[in-house]
Design a protein that fits this description.
Blueprint (H helix, E strand, L loop, with lengths): L3 E4 L2 E4 L4 E7 L7 E8 L5 E8 L2 E4 L7 E6 L4 E6 L8 E9 L13 E2 L3 E6 L1
Parallel strand pairs: 2-11
Antiparallel strand pairs: 1-3, 3-8, 4-5, 4-9, 5-6, 7-8, 9-10, 9-11
Length: 123
């Protein structure tokens, strides 16, 4: 497992942008698939984006607005969020799993989690 720490959340107006960062500790960061999940108030935690050997994945709700990226030299993964909407309000979590080329789209696929960071989009 790796230890993950998210940062960059906060309050933003609808239409604005925000970048979340996730710092990972431990070796062989490049061998992990990385995901960004989010939990909206009263809802389950679902995947927003994933970056792994199988490629980059975006949930339909964020496609075209969010961009996931990673810097393996710095053990960092990012989520750039543009054209934010009130429905993007959620706690955002960074997650990691050893990457064997699978899809890794479900919460139970991951074995390392950050503590989460709150993103609030005002209308």
């Amino acid at each position: 497992q790796v230890q993950l720490v998210e940062s960059g959340g906060g309050l933003v107006q609808a239409g604005g942008s925000m970048r979340l960062s996730c710092a990972a500790s431990g070796r062989a960061f490049s061998s992990y698939a990385m995901g960004w999940f989010r939990r909206a108030p009263g809802k389950e935690r679902t995947i927003a984006a994933r970056f792994g050997r199988s490629g980059v994945y975006y949930a339909n709700s964020v496609k075209g607005r969010f961009t996931i990226s990673r810097d393996n030299a710095k053990n960092m993964v990012y989520l750039e969020m543009n054209m934010l909407k009130p429905e993007d309000t959620a706690v955002y979590f960074c997650a990691a799993v050893p990457d064997y080329g699978l899809q890794y789209l479900k919460e139970e696929d991951y074995d390392s989690w950050g503590q989460g960071t709150q993103v609030t989009v005002s209308s």
